[in-house]
Amino acid sequence: MRRNPSVARVIDAAKRRLRRMLPSEASARALAAQAPGRRSGPADPAFAHILAPGVEVLRDGPIIVDRDWSPAGVTGQFTDDAATYHQRYFERLDFTHLIDYCLTLAQIDRARPCRVLDIGSGSGASVFAACRLLPQAEIVASDISPQLLRMLAGFVDSRDELRGRITTFCFDLHRKFFRPQTFDLVIGAAILHHLLDPRAALANVAAALKPGGRIVLVEPLESGSLMLVAMFARVLTVLGQSGAGEGPLARLMRAMRLDIQSRLGPPVEKPWTRELDDKWVFDTPYLERLAAELGLSRVDVYPAQPDLSQVYENAFTSLLADSGLAAIEVPQAVQDSVRMFDRGIGEDLKRELCPTGVIVFTR
Ligand SMILES: C[S@@+](CC[C@H](N)C(=O)[O-])C[C@H]1O[C@@H](n2cnc3c(N)ncnc32)[C@H](O)[C@@H]1O
Questions:
Q1: Could you read off the pLDDT of 144-189 as tens digits, one per residue?
Q2: Which pTM value belongs to this model?
Q3: Protein residue with its CA nearest to atom 17 in ligand 1
Q4: Which atom of ligand 1 is the closest one to the Cα of 174?
């Protein structure tokens, strides 16, 4: 019997998520095979003024690659499957509103010439938004994935308004790559929770920031993620009561609960962490401790959307879209149970229990 395509998609998505939680020798071997060791060829001296002492880079077509680049710790969705990742997210997401909101929260003077580092740039959604919103800025895009950066560089090359404004560096954020006090602003849209050691990476980024500079990150928050765990449990109960407890939506709810549960607590590596694309959810006490340890004078955490009236329903809808289930028919009883969370929780509490946050560190 042929599987309904949307059923097949969700089963595959759920399987992929579950598979990522189990150690896979094949994926470890595939990543190790990509590590080129020390790359040969003449170093490019053009960027010595911003690179940390000892760091050497090589030109690889339109991107600039760390001579010691290695893809350790990054999962295949950003490297081997980069084209699928780009197609799934880049076309669908316009980050202009999000980055605009981030710049407002961080009180950035948009008219001032400045040097901006975007971390975990992927194929560039946040970079292009920053470029539009900060017309005087020199922008450095960065990522560990050469595949995604090549897509970014290709797009830059195709647009008159972008050409010449963005430089792309391929390196691992766990390495000290830039000179101290090089950047006025660091932007990271969904990067910290992908890193094996967020503290080490943030220490490198903080050191590269000028005094008074800001690091603005968009990341999943623990308290709001726990609300999603509770909401998905409620949806599962409702689906079970209507006889749909083994259907695609129920499978997705189970997979997502497991996904979030496997990421709770302080970011300390567990046996399954390397296999997860999304490795952590963050809480404010952890972020405050991090700021103090890294010499950052303050950290402020805000909900990632100004209008919280449908924050849980929006999270549920985006999850369906991310899993290829946008077109699935959601039973009325499920919709009601999702809306119950939005109706029942007041605005003030929602600010504490928002699944995604904008985190602003000030040096
Ligand atoms: C969710 S994507 C971010 C998307 C991007 N900010 C955008 O605007 O489209 C996370 C990115 O982090 C990158 N990444 C993962 N581990 C990394 C590391 N150790 N160093 C640098 N980048 C890394 C991935 O390759 C991926 O492009």
A1: 999 999 999 999 999 999 999 999 999 999 999 999 999 999 999 9
A2: 0.89
A3: 144
A4: 19
Beta strands in the chain (DSSP E): 57-60, 63-66, 114-119, 137-143, 166-170, 183-189, 209-220, 298-303, 356-362
Phi, psi of 176 (to 5 degrees): -75, 110
The Å distance, Cα 63 to ligand 1 centre, comes to 15
As given in the structure block, the two tokens for residue 138 are 């020199």
Angle between helices 198-207 and 284-293 in degrees, nearest 10:
50
| Burial environment of residue 115 by CB neighbours within 10 A (0 to 12, 13 to 18, 19 or more) | middle
**Residue ranges covered by each domain of the chain:** 5-26+222-294+301-362, 37-220
Give me the pLDDT at residue 91, please. Answer: 63
**CATH class label, 37-220:** alpha beta
Largest separation between any pair of C-alpha atoms in the chain: 66
Looking from the CA of residue 90, the nearest atom of ligand 1 is: 9
Task: Determine whether the shortest distance from the Cβ of 73 to ligand 1 is under 6 A.
Answer: yes
187: CA distance to ligand 1 center in Å?
A: 12
Q: Is the CB of 65 under 6 A from ligand 1?
A: no
- The rounded distance, in Å, linking the Cα atoms of 151 and 137 is 21
Atom of ligand 1 nearest to the CA of 123: 9
Contacts of 244 (CB under 8 A, 6+ apart): 250, 331
Q: Is residue 191 in contact with ligand 1, taking CB distance under 6 Å?
A: yes
Which letter does DSSP use for residue 282 in this model?
B
Distance 238 CA to ligand 1 centre (A): 36
Strands 137-143 and 298-303: unpaired
